[in-house]
Amino acid sequence: MATKSKKSRFGNPVTAADAKTVLSFTDVVARRALEPLTPGFRAWATAAGVDPEQLDWLCSLLADFFKNYAQSVPAVDATNIDVPLTSKILGSAADFHPEMRLGIGLALHTFLKFLENTLTWAGTQNDLAQLLRMTDPERAAAVGLKLSQYVSVPPLTPQEAGETRAQLVYVRRAVALLAWIGEGRKLTDTRLLPRKDIAEAAACVGVNAVGAATTKADPTAAADAPRPVTSMIQLPPLMEYWQALIDTRLITVSANHVKLTKIGQALRENPAGADHDTAVLAYFLFYDSIIPYAAFDPEKSVNVMVALSLADAASNKPMKSELLFGPSALAGPKALEAIMVGSQIRKFAEEGLVEIGTHITVPPVLRSPLASALKLLDDKIEELAAEAAAAARSANRAPSQATYQLKIQIDDITSPVWRRVEVPAEIALDELHDLLQHLFAWEDRHLHEFRIGDHATGVRYAPDDPDADHWGTPPLDERDVALNSLLTAPGSALHYHYDFGDDWEHTITLEAILPPAAPGELPRCTDGGGHAPQEDSFGAHGWMDKLAISRDPGHPDHKNIRAWLGLRKGQNIDPEHFDAGALAKRLKALLR
Question: Which intervals hold domain Plasmid pRiA4b Orf3-like (predicted)?
């Protein structure tokens, strides 16, 4: 259900639409599909507490959605919406700006709840459940917090990007520091610059400082006198550039010496021709300010707030400067956060990494390296969210009512590769996925899905990804499905498909229903057989071929395959070997 507080940064698209004098074909199709339902939707939403302004906004977003929908479906039925097409439209909205995806998702979710509550939905209940899950505001917001998706990267040739970046302050400062290092400089035993060199090095990056025996300032010194420091560590800007040059491999630091690498020499001599290296340098300068070095709360971390501001500044709809630097921001309840974030944004502006005018923007040539740094932060936030969700589920889990004894076998391998395990009957499919990865020492580097039934007509379950492309109906969210809702009697089976390239198919058979185990005892493996195949070995037949070749000295690929398998002289893989002890150690991490 929409909330009264939800607002759009994109204004009301209806205003622009109403100004048109000529309607397109898709406008007409969308309008005809919505018009019969709009009065009822407005009445229902008003009764539910949606204010008029927001209701207008939701209706305008619905119109936009169905205009896009009508481009692929000439006969639009607003009471029976196609799931894959909806997923693609939401994905296109996310490509423009994640907040646009959230806005359209919110409007569509509210409309779907109206159809559900008024019994107007004409499609299948499975499709309705898929659409409601796909557009759920809370889930969409969690999935939508992908800062790297905000970034709009324009097409630029390497020459254009290199020449433009070479003129930016951060590159000029890096080049100045590289030129100052020259043929090399001596360092202290702590691999830092000696005090006598601090002033010149600091000046290269725009810092007025001098190495001294004390940090106490001379009260009689002029206002523009250099700041005294006892170590370069006391100058964060200098240290940021120093570390960025190391990370970009422009300089190498040994025990008592620093010198330029060949890459550093090339950048110093021709910055415009070093397109890749100036991009990597920008990446590390962004990285230093947006990636927290310790545990952090994404809702409170200043690093994340800076990252969000940068992501917004690199989007198609950058925010106005007054939202961060204006009186309202500095007088509001989050004034301290605004000051801290604003300080970092101004620092970026001094280095040419950000431009501050009426809007805060990231130069187009820096958006690709920024997106790479934001992607790393996205991954860290996603890991934290997954850990928090797992902890919450574990804390709220009711006592198990039964134990399932399962036999899990990888299909089509001779000798058979199988494991017998005991798990709580209520284990969710995403937890079962983790167990399967541990059972067969998979590395979880590929896509997966579960399936009840055959490939053509079976029901599929996979990780929730509203924006993913799917063949046919998207799979159901595996997190919402307990194993005992699928397997109810001994002999029933579930299929697990891992790596859609190698196609490792696993058959999971319920062998017995046992009494519940005590807390902390499950999952456990009670038996098994067969050596688990290695990742990326081209499926069951590829794995068996590699084992055969590894034992055949006359085969032309014998040496290469043995090297790929990591076998030393005299070593062989026994296809029937099962190491129960090693597996028990791996499963300890999953005990509950």
Answer: 403-580
